[in-house]
Amino acid sequence: IFIPFLGLVLAFWFYSARDTFKPEMLRGKRVIVTGASTGIGEQMAYHLARMGAHILITARTQPRLQEVVQRCLELGAASAQFISGTMEDMAFAQSVVREAQTSLGGLDMLILNHVGTSYFGFFDGDVEHVRQLLEINFLSYVAMATSALPMLKESEGSIVVVSSMAGKVGFPFTVPYSATKFALDGFFSSLRQEFSIQNINVSITLCILGFIDTERAVRAAAEVLRERPAPRDECALEILKGAALRRRELYYRYSSTRLPLLLRDCAAELLDYLVRSRYRLPAPPGT
Ligand code: NDP
What we know:
- This protein is α/β, with parallel strands linked by helices and 287 residues long.
- The chain has ten helices and seven strands.
- Helix 3 links the parallel strand 2 (54-59) and strand 3.
């Protein structure tokens, strides 16, 4: 009985040791953060700066990026720079990765976080909008990961994909957005399998987020969602911890994301009902 007990203790010890995040893990690392002019991306840039990483951030709004870079330098970043442009343009997406090669001499972590503007409401039938959103939220992620792969293979680095509960279970009022987030899961989870088969030591962390208190999300959903948003700085730190620990998936917050998802396979309709009950819905027509 002693040997299995010892085995259990050792396994627990190994698991907890593997689980410990230390800020030094990211010191000196060369990191790209997309969508870092505001919200969760901006907060990730600040955490990385405090940890002493080399940071390359991107988004469209140049003055905001300039301010974020300035703050990163004040917070202790090993270096900080930005490149502005739109992720509707795949050539721009690839040029951001090339910039890491030129100015940082390689890449340790690619954090894909940007998100294009969409609407909050019933699906309006605009197929062109779905296509455009797929380009920004999905195809540019694919283009950047593909361009970055040679550098990430060399550094045995990490790809971090910021997704949502809306990319794991059907959500009302964000149909085009949900579609783009489901696509990310399909692509990057399949790619992870291939990395494993080919012994490619590049981790892929898919981040499943609940409602976070960024300006965009609060403006769009605070009035209709019954729950309170979680803080974006804590969310950003949890993403970085999950990435540094090379987790396959990260759930933030656990109670509002992972736990409900456990119902998916055994009680999908109950989960659908729980998702709908998060919203203050208008009364159906004719009632
Ligand atoms: P924000 O709207 O605060 O930030 C989005 C970022 O993307 C900004 O930096 C924006 O900068 C940039 N961006 C928007 N459009 C483009 C474009 N066409 N090309 C390049 N960059 C662009 O979003 P959040 O911080 O709330 O979200 C960050 C991530 O977290 C997203 O992937 C989102 O889906 C995910 N998430 C967020 C949740 C929440 O409740 N907040 C919930 C679940 C997931 P600029 O306008 O200057 O280009």
